[in-house]
Amino acid sequence: MLQTIHKIAFIAVISAMSLITVINHSYAQEFSLYGDIGYNYGFKNTNMDYAGNDVMYGYGSGLGISFGVQLDSELPIFLYAGAGINFALALQYENINGVSNKSSFNFNYKSLSLGIGHVFRFEDQGALYGIRAHGGLDYNLPAEASQTENNNYNGDVAYGNSIGYQFGAKLSLVYKEVFFIEPGFTFRNANFQYSSYDWNEGNGRPNNFMLSPNANHLAISLTVRKMLGN
Q1: Got the DSSP string for 141-207?
Q2: How confident is the model over 119-159, as pLDDT tens digits?
Q3: What CA–CA distance (Å, rounded) separates 143 from 227?
Q4: Domains and CATH numbers, the chain
């Protein structure tokens, strides 16, 4: 299965490079830089204990930030490549009369993205430029998660790299044909497999939720994009 995914990723990269070559030789093109920030809603969560209460956490929930470059042409299609980081953090802490208690979960992962999209233009609508539908592949870099429960540091788990995918849509608002503000949503598929762990012996080994985590999430985001050369 993993070999098949890598083959698909390789074919996708070669296809994107070929498409860039065709666009470069046949159509006028413009580059832009973008920055994106969003809230990630994870689809798979669980609980840890904090003073007898449940604290929910998940690998896909949290905050996402990304930056990248986009290539537009006379065609209603665009290509994009970027790098991002997703933060998942759950924390409960209190200090009463010098006695403290803490439960926490921390996980973040970095990824490289390559994708293609289609622009559905709004004609003569002023600042309403159109809808940008997009999809592509993510290469997720090795990452690490750690957990503390009621002041007991359970340990950390390391994960190898993985390949996922993404798709979504954005409403594109334009200002003077130079700046674009694009609220939207993106679904990201991101699954990991542990490579090693350093776990407190008294707690045995990490549970399956941490050994093979599902970080799939829906990102509600805002993108700001600036055309180059303008």
Answers
A1: PPEEEEEEETTEEEEEEEE--EEEEEEEEEEEEEETTTEEEEEEEEEEE-B--EEEEEE-GGG-S--
A2: 998 887 778 999 999 999 999 999 999 999 999 899 999 99
A3: 33
A4: 2-227 (2.40.160.70)
Residue 27 has pLDDT above 70, yes or no: no
Tokens 């003073």, located at residue: 51
The pLDDT value recorded for residue 2 is: 47
Q: What is the pTM of this model?
A: 0.83
Residue of 153, 141, 22, 9 lying closest to 79 (CA atoms): 22
Q: What is the pLDDT of residues 83-94, one digit of tens each?
A: 999 999 888 878
- Separation of CA 195 from chain center: 21
CB 6 within 8 A of CB 160: no
The beta strand positions in 26-98, using DSSP E, are 29-42, 46-50, 53-57, 62-73, 77-96
Alpha carbons within 13 A on the beta-carbon side of 86: 33
Predicted pLDDT at 124: 74
